[in-house]
Every structure is written in C-alpha cells, then in structure tokens.
Write a structure and sequence with these properties.
Blueprint lengths: L5 H8 L9 H11 L7 E7 L12 E5 L10 E4 L2 H10 L3 E3 L1 H8 L7 E4 L4 H4 L3 H4 L17 H10 L1 E5 L5 E8 L4 H14 L34 E8 L5 E8 L4 E8 L4 E9 L17 E3 L4 E6 L6 E6 L4 E4 L7 E6 L5 E6 L8 E6 L5 E3 L6 E6 L5 E8 L2 E9 L7 E2 L7 H5 L6 E6 L5 E7 L10 E5 L16 H12 L3 E5 L9 H4 L9 H17 L6 E6 L1 H12 L6 E5 L10 H8 L6 H7 L11 E7 L8 H12 L5 E6 L9 H19 L8
Parallel strand pairs: 3-4, 3-5, 26-27, 26-28, 28-29, 29-30, 30-31
Antiparallel strand pairs: 1-7, 2-6, 8-9, 9-10, 10-11, 12-13, 13-14, 14-15, 16-17, 17-18, 18-19, 20-21, 21-22, 22-23, 24-25, 25-27
Length: 694
C-alpha cells in the first residue's frame, strides 16, 4: 500500500467515515480538504444498484447544472449552411460540416461536445469508430441531434452534461470546480441526483409488451417475460420544482411514456402513453426537431403526440390527471412555441392545405385560434423578443425564399425586406407553376402530386416520374422546393415535350401517422405501388404512352427507382438511380431500425426491401450514378449491385462513378454531368422511334 503524504493524512483526518454527510456539509468539506495549486474539478459518483450488462438496466441521460461546470466546453456544430449563423451566435467554438468531417476522419477530436442535425447523422455513421470511444457521437436522446441547434449549443455552454452508468453500475459526473461556493456545488449535485432518481421500469405499463410483428412468422419471437430496454429522453421540472415530467422511450421506439414525478411523495404516475406498432415519430416529437414539450404553469404540462393520427398539441393537467387536446383535425402542428405570458401558443401547421404552412396564435384557455399569415405557400416565422413583430421567410411555388416583416396581428400585409433570391437571368425564364393533383391509389388512398404538363407534348408521348429522397420529406407542396435543381430539370423536360410527375408517396412527410408509417416492414411496397398507380393516371388522363415512362431519383429515390425496374419491369422503360441504397442491411441503423426493425429479429423485412435480391428482374434501361466518397449511402452499395448485374448477365445498364463526390455533390461539373446522363437516357430510350413492322 502506498504511503500517504502529509496533506493526504490531514485530509483523511477531517473525514468521519461513520457519518452520513448532508450535501451542504459534503461540499463544504470538499473545499476544506482540497489543497491543489490549481482550480481542481469536483466530481460526484452515484452508485445506482443496477446491472448495466442488461439492456433494460442501462441508465443514461442529460442534466443542466444550475451553476455550470466551470469548464470551457468546446462545442463543434456540424450543421448545414442555413444553420451556421445561429450556431455561431449561440456560442459554438467550431461551425461547419464537410471540412470538419474530413478533419475527424483524419483523427481530429479536439472538442468536448458535438452537436448536429438529423439530416447530417448519415454522414457521421462511418466516423463512429473515431467518435464512439471518445464519447463524442451525437445522440438524439442526449439532445445533441436536433433541429434547434442554437438551443442545444446554449445549453451545453451553460452547463448541460450527459451521463451514462459505467460497467460497475456507477454514474460519474463533474459538478464544478473547487472555486465554486459550497452552496453552488451542492445545488449542482442535487440537480444531478434528482435527475438520477431511479424510476423502476417494471412499473411502467406495457414494458413487457412485444411488438405485433414478433407475434407473426415474419419476426423472431422474443421472451415476453423480459422487460424491453428503455432510455430517459428528457426531464422537465415544473416552475415550483415540486413536480417533474420525465419522458421515457422504449429503445425499439414503439412506446413513449410521460411520467409525472412528485418530489414530496417520491412516486410517479403515468401521465400519457403513446404506442405505435410501427414507430413513434412525427413533427415535434423529440428527435424530429422543433420545440417539443414543457410546463405552461405549475399544474399544466404541454407536449405533442401523434396518438390521434396527426401531430397535435396536448396539455396534461397534473391535478386532475387528464390529457386535453388543444388542437385536432386531419392536419399537423409542425412547430409550437409558448408565448411570453404563457397564455398562448404560436403554431405553424398545414391546416389550410397539406402543401401550405401557415402561422397561428392559439389561446390556451378556450382554444380560440387566429391565423396570422396570409400568402399561399410556406411561412417560416420568427417572433421578435417582445412578440410584437413577425420576421417571416416566405416562399411560393416558383418564388424562392425571401424575408418579410409584419406586425403580429391578423389580416396585416407583410412588408418585403429582401428581393435577392431571383436574378435577372432567373426572371427571364417563365418558370412553371406545377399543377397539384390527387392520384387514386389501389387501396383507396389519395396521393398528392405535382404535375408538369407540356404545352406541346412530344409525338411519342413520353413521361418521367421523379422520386424525392430521404424517405420522410414532402415535395408536392406550394413553396420553393429544396429540390431546386430537379425543379429546373423538370421545366427543361417539359419544354422537351415530357409530362413530369412528382408524388408524395407513402412514407412522405406532411400527411399524418398512417402515411408516415406506410412503409413499415416493407420499403418498396406501398411506396412503389403509389408510383405504379401514378403511371396509370398518366396514361388514362393525359394520353401518355405506357411503354415510354421513365423514373429517376436520388438516395431513397434511387432505391425506389431500382425496385421499380427490378420488380415492375413492364411499367418503367428506363430509370436513373442516383446514389441508391441497394441493401438496407448496410445502411444507418438509427434509420432502418425504425422502419425495418432489427435485422436479427426481422430478417424478412430487410430481404424483401433490398433491391439487390431482385436484380434478376431487370430487363430495361438503368443508369446508376454514385459518388465514391459517399458517407451516407456508401459506394460499396453500387459496387455490390454492379457485380450482381454482371453475374446475372444483364444488359442495358451503366454505372457513372464520381471519384471526388460525397452523397450530395459539390462540384457544378458533377451535377452537370449527372443531369446530362439522365437526359440522354430519357431522350434515347423514351423517344426512340417505334420499330417498323415488316
């Protein structure tokens, strides 16, 4: 045993091992026995009595210390360009995307916390080997994957820390510096301990419920006597500090519980349980962006839920244990913000039309709602601090986003502040306003779509269907599309005599839970048949030649293109699959586990959803385009598929590789080359002269 120094002996002499110290006493004693020549950190260790080897006993979460940590926390914000300004303003030390991804790839990790957006997580997956061991991988459950980047950065800078139980069942966390007062250290320690109050998962209703798919032959049966693993997604304290609302998520993402904790009686009640046999999600649900929940006052807690089939606003009244709907209907509340006086909500919803986003003021006391924006399109509104003015980014069909300012009153015209989005050259072209139409699906559903009709259809009557990417997106709407290159390309195709159709297939955003989860356990199912049903409308109503229909899209759109050519080869004559997923078993687990469950538990879902297993069905023309540096859908997907096509002896296909490009191309020359190849494919195949009959 090592010999104690004189100072160590003096410190030990001041500690009574038989005494149970109060927090205030313990923190005062820490300051007294510390003799370092620097401002030492103060840590706390809490033994939880759990076995972290068992998934259901794994404890992790976040807590914001009231007095911060005393450390200069270095924050890296990996965000898209539109979020860079707010990240910098919030205090992020490093802000960017591709340049920092490259630095991390080369071993750079000189940061304490990384904050990013859901759309960027696909690029971070390949860097898990670098970030994971250092505890730097962002996670929605710790608030480091969010659309509210500024809030996340500010919280981390203010003292937000994440904790995780170690292999011995102990949580270790820093709670400040020796220079802190004893009271400040005690406050920080109490905040962490209160957050760690162990809620027994065994008491949560439905903790043993197996998903429906595991009751069928298609899913591997699990032991129903074992608790499902859960995680603690958020803790919300009431203004009085007498209650807390704790959000608990099943790690299979099929249950979400709101648990009301009473600090006086040390017990909790289930305030709300949302169950979804597919997966919990939708606008405003944690992990999907936007302000999600909080206390209105000491008795009322607000949150959003898709329990009605659409994302709506609710309040839970603690005194009566009642959940009360504040909004309802076949539309989504896409953003929600509590007013300064806590008497109103400011909402963004698509109540007017699935393809519009309007801004409203909702009075909590009686549910009276007033629409504040007017223009047909989309409004992204930021309130002034005093809530007297609205700064609005507004866009319509063929008019890119511009900034407007208006008084926070109904029926008031908004004043244009900018007019920079359209150049003279842009204005010289007569950009089309696509027609919004509905397509009847074979199961009776109505598919929203945008149709570009040529003034002079080509004599061969060709058509092209575009498939938007990312799965959960929306493109059949009334505002300037994020797919602006495709919008311009569709105008060109229309000029050349094509009918062009762009549909919001099953799995798209904006249409509620049933539409969002329509691809559950079967990608390439209803999302593909929606496109096949769209071809029938083109033929029946617009005179398109059924033998001259092409299809194209990128990422998820590339995947659908492959499934279309492989499994419905008589419907589509040609297709361009851009950076496509060919085998979902290779893709980001966080994305696929919701839709297809775990590969080991639901192998059937992965096999029937992956194009590589159906490549034998190809008989028409296929173009594959893929960046070799793709960090989202890895280039190996294209390589594996091409090898499979070679083995099958398939003709009429080609692979265009882009050696310097990631998932989203950067170089204009690459974009130009890709679209030239797509156009050449459609012009060559869809407009080919009919064979002369002998």
């Amino acid at each position: 045993m090592a010999t104690l120094t004189k100072k160590q002996k003096e410190a030990r002499a001041k500690i009574d091992k038989t005494k149970l110290y109060a927090l205030s006493e313990a923190t005062a004693l820490v300051k007294e026995i510390t003799n370092s020549n620097f401002d030492a950190s103060v840590d706390i260790a809490v033994r939880l009595g759990v076995d972290p080897r068992k998934a259901n006993q794994m404890v992790r979460g976040v807590v914001t210390l009231p007095h911060g940590t005393g450390k200069d926390v270095k924050v890296l914000a990996l965000v898209t360009p539109d979020k860079e300004a707010e990240a910098k303003e919030a205090g992020a030390d490093y802000v960017g995307l591709d340049e920092y991804l490259e630095k991390i790839k080369n071993g750079w990790t000189d940061v304490d916390v990384i904050i990013t957006m859901p759309s960027v997580m696909g690029k971070l997956g390949p860097l898990g080997r670098v970030l994971g061991p250092r505890g730097l991988m962002p996670n929605p459950k710790t608030g480091t994957v969010t659309m509210d980047v500024a809030k996340a950065v500010a919280e981390v800078k203010a003292g937000k820390i994440d904790f995780k139980v170690d292999k011995t069942g102990i949580v270790h966390a820093g709670i400040g510096k020796v220079s802190f007062s004893a009271a400040q250290l005690a406050d920080n320690a109490k905040e962490l301990i209160d957050t760690l109050i162990k809620l027994n998962p065994r008491d949560i209703p439905g903790i043993y419920d197996l998903p429906d798919y595991q009751q069928t032959s298609g899913g591997k049966k699990m032991d129903s006597t074992k608790m499902r693993a859960v995680s603690y997604a958020g803790v919300y304290w009431s203004p009085s500090g007498k209650q807390a609302m704790i959000e608990v998520r099943a790690q299979d993402n099929k249950d979400r519980w709101l648990l009301s904790w009473d600090t006086a009686f040390k017990k909790f009640d289930v305030a709300n349980r949302q169950r979804d046999e597919a997966w919990i999600g939708g606008p405003g649900i944690p992990g999907w962006g936007g302000n999600s929940a909080g206390w209105i006052d000491a008795d009322n807690f607000w949150y959003r839920s898709e329990s009605s089939g659409y994302a709506h606003l609710y309040r839970y009244q603690a005194s009566t244990r009642q959940n009360i709907a504040l909004t309802s209907g076949n539309y989504e509340v896409q953003q929600a913000q509590l007013s300064n006086d806590r008497k109103f909500f400011f909402l963004t919803s698509n109540e007017v039309h699935s393809g519009e986003q309007q801004f409203y003021k909702l009075r909590i006391s009686d549910g009276q709602k007033t629409r504040l924006t007017q223009g047909e399109g989309a409004h992204q509104v930021t309130l002034s601090p005093d809530e007297k003015k609205l700064a609005t980014l507004f866009s319509s069909y063929n008019r890119p986003w511009e900034l407007y300012l208006q008084i926070n009153e109904p029926g008031v015209s908004a004043q244009a502040i900018t007019g920079l989005a359209r150049s003279d050259e842009f204005n010289r072209y007569n950009w089309r306003i696509p027609e919004l139409i509905q397509i009847p699906a074979r199961d009776g559903a109505k598919i929203q779509a945008r149709l570009y009709k040529p003034a002079n259809p080509h004599s061969t009557k060709p058509a092209v269907i575009f498939v938007h990417g990312a799965g959960y997106l929306q493109n059949a709407h009334k505002w300037w599309s994020s797919y602006f290159r495709e919008y311009m390309f569709h105008n060109l195709l229309t000029d050349l005599g094509y009918h062009v159709l762009d549909i919001d297939y099953r799995g798209s955003a904006g249409y509620g839970r049933d539409w969002r989860t329509g691809i559950y356990r079967y990608m390439g199912g209803k999302d593909l048949t929606d496109h096949v049903d769209a071809t029938k409308l083109l033929v029946d109503l617009y005179g398109v030649d059924p033998s001259r229909i092409g299809i194209y899209g990128g990422s998820y759109g590339g995947f659908i293109t492959l499934m279309a050519l492989f499994t419905t080869p008589d419907v589509f004559k040609a297709g361009a699959a851009l950076r496509p997923v060919t085998d979902w078993a290779n893709y980001n687990h966080g994305y696929t586990s919701n839709i297809l469950n775990e590969p080991a538990q639901d192998s059937l879902a992965y096999k029937r959803s992956s194009p590589i297993y159906f490549a034998g069905g190809l008989k028409n023309h296929l173009l594959i385009c893929h960046g070799m540096l793709d960090l989202n859908v890895h280039y190996q997907d294209a390589v594996k598929l091409t090898q499979r096509l070679i083995e099958l002896g398939k003709d009429h296909w080609e692979l265009a590789s882009y050696p310097m490009e990631d998932h989203g191309f950067v170089e204009p020359s690459s974009w130009t080359d890709e679209y030239k190849r797509i156009l050449q494919l459609f012009e060559r195949v869809l407009k080919a002269p009919l064979p002369v009959k002998p």
